[in-house]
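Residues determine shape. Take a concrete instance:
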Amino acid sequence: MTDPTLYRMTATTWALLLLLGLIWGGSYFFGRIAVGHLPPFTLAFFRLSLAALALHIYLRGRFDLYATLRSHWRPFLLLGLLNNAIPHSLILMGQTEIGAGLAAILNATTPIWTVLIANRLTTDEKLTAAKLIGCLLGLLGTVILIGPSTLATSQVPLWALLLPIGASISYGFAAIYGKQFRALPAPVTATGQLTASCLLVLPAALAIDQPWHLAMPPVLAMLAVLALALVSTAFAYILFFRIMAKAGATNTSLVTLLVPPSAILLGVLFLGERFEWIDIVAMALIGLGLLVLDGRILPSRKKLPTAL
């Protein structure tokens, strides 16, 4: 792997990183709007299928796309399940009860679960003292966030708070499994997992949501679905890989810290969401834990594995 210290963050890459943080924060915003009119599995299917179609059009068969899809269809199915089908569905189910900002903060714990899973399942990704401190800080922030939110009001069911965390755990398994795809061009991996995941979500959408009984959603909801699929998924993948090529994986991982504030800002401005000081403290603890895990605070000898 290329040494992260060889990469520099220019004004352009910082601007692109901020844009990506806003776009991925927007995914929780668009999801919150759309899930009020479309059930979660149906919405996840539209998000994944439209994004996959957009990437197929963007690649137009380059990088031996179709040959790779044929030869790697089984691994893509598992990666699509762990990295798209399960987490997107869980987040959208949770967003039927919780706001965009809260879902984004809870899902920001992904690197913490990735480290804990890697410590258990791999031989070369064991916990160091710095990683342990980072995990404890992040988990403390999560406990603070869930505890008062659950006790303060019965309007926020515990299951809705736990679903984005379940999505984060699924992302953690995907990050470990996804290491075997590093030899493939990144856009091909993105297209393969999205193609597989929309096929996996389709049976659940048909069996559980029965979309043929649904009323036509309003224009605003349809626009939110298009933005969720084309902007926050397809374009976001393209932008993510462009930033990684320019700034390196370590610098690109800073986007994890930018997503929750973006989602919170959009939720407060346009959805009327409110946040208490305890929520900000919890988010700060999770952010501090991520910085420790990243090695920017209490650096350790080994960097975190780069999530797909």
